[in-house]
Amino acid sequence: MILKYDEVVRSGIAKQVADNIRSAIMDGRLKIDERLPSEEELARSFGISRPTVREALKRLAAQNLILSKRGPTGGNFVKRPDPEGLSKAITGAATLLVGVGAFDIDEIIVARRETETICCRLAAENCGEEFLLLMEDEIANQEDPALTDEDFCASDVRFHRALVDSTNNGPLKLMMYTVIEAFIPITNMIVFRVRERRQVVSLHREIVEGLRNADAARAVRALNALLDYVSQSYVAAVAARESRKSVAESAT
């Protein structure tokens, strides 16, 4: 039997049913693209009403686990996993954790240094011209003096996203999603007032030159120099913020 109907309890029935089906999907008893039993069949098998079944199916759809299709051959089908959707959920949690101080800057820098070093090494072996051009386009963007701080930070994120994508390694891209979409933006929000764009752009260019020449060591050295600079900028930004706070308190 694929679904464990006997495990359903009466409290929170819709959630129990959704959890039951979710477990069947996660452990492979229900396969990708497989059609679920009809609402009537599920209601009869679980011993519940069709509106309760619909509520359970809505929960699964909200979790991106099933997809509803209309028509004679329609129904509810197990959805192919969406790595980006899963990554966004993880990133949202990571952003919250950083925001409440669960991770400090040293931890973030270490995480970036270790993971992006791997990316540089793989990118030096696998990077195609299209990714090099994407990174160079972002560097050209960053050199524009009219670029706002917000747009510079967004370009920085896109540069590192292209670096990760250039590894051509799906699992690594999934793992790096949080680093790129959560850690880098939050760090940028703090350091943008004190960092010098020219320094960042220069090190970005050095990373690209390393990749273009398949010189992983050169790219990694530039990455380490960049992260050292980010760390120093963070310390300077926090010190400046504390100084402004002290001055404000003295004035009152």
Question: How would you describe this protein?
Answer:
The protein is mainly alpha-helical and 252 residues long. It has two domains: 5-78, Arc Repressor Mutant, subunit A, CATH 1.10.10; 83-251, Four Helix Bundle (Hemerythrin (Met), subunit A) (Up-down Bundle). Helices cover 71% and strands 3% of the residues. It has a two-stranded antiparallel sheet.
Any key phrases for this structure?
2 domains, single chain, two-stranded antiparallel sheet, 2 strands, 252 residues, mainly alpha, 10 helices, Four Helix Bundle (Hemerythrin (Met), subunit A), Arc Repressor Mutant, subunit A
How do you describe this structure in short?
This protein has two domains: 5-78, Orthogonal Bundle (Arc Repressor Mutant, subunit A); 83-251, Four Helix Bundle (Hemerythrin (Met), subunit A). Helices cover 71% and strands 3% of the residues.
Question: Radius of gyration, rounded?
Answer: 24 Å
Which band does the percent of strand residues land in? under 5%
What is the distance, rounded to the nearest whole angstrom, between the alpha carbons of the first and last residues? 71 Å
Level-2 CATH architecture of the largest domain: Up-down Bundle
Counting copies of identical and different chains, the oligomeric state is: single chain
Low-confidence stretches: none
CATH class of the largest domain: Mainly Alpha
